[in-house]
Write a structure and sequence with these properties.
By secondary structure, the protein is of the alpha+beta class. It has two domains: about 140 residues, hypothetical protein (bacova_03559) (Immunoglobulin-like); about 60 residues, no CATH class. The protein has four helices and twelve strands. The N and C termini lie far apart (about 80 Å).
Length: about 230
C-alpha cells in the first residue's frame, strides 16, 4: 500500500508539470535563449555600454541559443525577430544578421547581434527585445527563455570600487569624464578585488597618460577642474 501511495504521488507530480514543459526524450526539437552553455534557467537580460570600449563604433554581442532534443547532421534554420512593441532602439542602432542556424551536430550555437554606437547613446539607454519563432524544425523551449532583452548605451556611472580610499590614495575625485579617460589609458574598467599594489600601478599608468597627453596639447578637465590623480600617489 505504501509503494502504491508513492507511485501515485509521483504520477501526480509528473502530471502537474508546467504547460511549457518539453518532451526531452521525444522526437521533437526545441530551441531557447540561454546565458551560458550549461545554463537552463530563465535567460537574464544583457546590459552593454560602449563606455567600456573606447573608440568602438560598433561591437558584436553573441547571443546563445540551446537545443533540447536530438542532434542533427544538418544545419537547421532558427528564426529570430525583433519585438517592436518592447523595443526602444532604432533600426539603425543594431544589425541582426541572418539567416541564423543551429549548426550540424551542435547542441548550442550563437547569433551575432551587432550594436552600433552613436552620440545619443551617451544620454540614454535603449532596449532591444528579440524573440524566437517556432518553425517546422523547432518548437520553443521554456517560456522564460523565448525572448531576450539587450539594453545598451554609451553611458557610464561611478563604480563601487572607486571609493573614498581610491580617491585619497590613487585616483582623486571621481567624474564620468575621468572614468572614461582612465579606461582609455589602462584598458581596465573594473578594479574590484584588485590589490593595493595593482591599483597603484594602474593609477601611475593613468598619471603618465595624462602627462603625455598634455605634452601633446591635450586639455583634460571635468566639473572638478583639471583632471589629475591623487596628490598622495607616491
Amino acid at each position: 500500500m505504501k509503494h502504491f501511495y508513492l507511485i501515485t504521488l509521483l504520477g501526480c507530480w509528473l502530471m502537474s508539470c508546467k504547460k511549457d514543459a518539453v518532451e526531452v526524450f521525444g522526437g521533437t526539437s526545441y530551441v531557447y535563449f540561454a546565458n551560458h552553455p550549461g545554463d537552463s534557467s530563465d535567460v537574464k537580460p544583457i546590459e552593454y555600454s560602449f563606455a567600456f570600449h573606447p573608440g568602438a563604433n560598433k561591437d558584436t554581442i553573441p547571443l546563445l541559443i540551446k537545443l533540447i532534443g536530438r542532434l542533427s547532421n544538418d544545419d537547421r534554420p532558427v528564426e529570430v525577430a525583433v519585438d517592436a512593441s518592447n523595443t526602444t532602439a532604432l533600426s539603425g542602432d543594431y544589425e541582426l544578421p541572418g539567416p541564423n542556424a543551429l549548426r550540424a551536430r551542435h547542441a548550442w550555437d550563437t547569433i551575432a547581434l551587432v550594436l552600433h554606437n552613436s552620440d545619443r547613446l551617451k544620454t540614454g539607454k535603449f532596449k532591444l527585445r528579440l524573440l524566437l519563432h517556432e518553425t517546422e524544425l523547432f518548437r520553443l523551449g521554456p517560456s522564460g527563455n523565448r525572448h531576450i532583452d539587450i539594453t545598451f548605451s554609451d553611458m557610464i556611472a561611478r563604480p563601487a570600487w572607486w571609493n573614498q580610499d581610491m580617491e585619497q590614495l590613487f585616483l582623486g575625485a571621481y567624474s564620468d569624464t575621468k572614468y572614461r579617460l582612465f579606461i582609455e589609458a589602462t584598458g581596465i574598467a573594473d578594479l574590484t578585488g584588485v590589490t593595493g599594489t595593482e591599483r597603484r600601478a594602474y593609477a601611475i599608468i593613468f598619471r603618465d597618460f595624462l602627462a603625455r597627453g598634455r605634452e601633446n596639447g591635450e586639455v583634460y578637465v571635468d566639473e572638478n577642474g583639471q583632471i589629475n590623480v591623487s596628490p598622495n600617489l607616491l
